[in-house]
Amino acid sequence: MELNGVEYIGLAAGALTTAAYLPQVYKTWRTRNVGDISLTMYTSMTLGIFLWLVYGLFLQAPAIILANSVSLALVGGMLRMKIKYSRETPGPRASGGRGE
């Protein structure tokens, strides 16, 4: 498939919006601090990006496919870290705090 001007705009937009996830992924991976990260948000975002990827595959749109493939890996990784590190980090009740 030959890329035209519109595809280049789509690729640039996809690169910028996908790159926006990198600082959060890196910080979470480095600190393992997931206390302020919303499980609901990352679950819905992962599902939404997956659906965008499926949509892009049906359209055979390289910009949508590429951006959402990378985004799915990053956001899916955040979701996995949220689940994994939440289990490792005791909540306020487990640590003796009131948590109420």
Explained architecture:
With 100 residues, the protein is mainly α. It has one domain: Monooxygenase. The protein is 73% helix and 0% strand. It has helices at 5-19, 22-31, 39-59, 62-88. Helix 2 packs parallel to helix 4 (62-88) and helix 3 (39-59) runs antiparallel to helix 4. The longest helix has 27 residues, at 62-88. The chain is elongated, with a radius of gyration of 17 Å. It starts with a helix and ends in a 12-residue tail after the last helix.
Helix/strand class: mainly alpha
Q: For the record, give the distance between the C-alpha atoms at the N and C termini, rounded to a whole number.
A: 57 Å
Detail the poorly predicted runs. Answer: 93-100
* CATH fold-level assignment: Monooxygenase
| Tally of individual domains | 1
- Tell me what portion of residues adopts beta-strand conformation: under 5%
Count helical runs.
4
Task: Offer a few descriptive terms.
4 helices; Monooxygenase; disordered C terminus; 100 residues
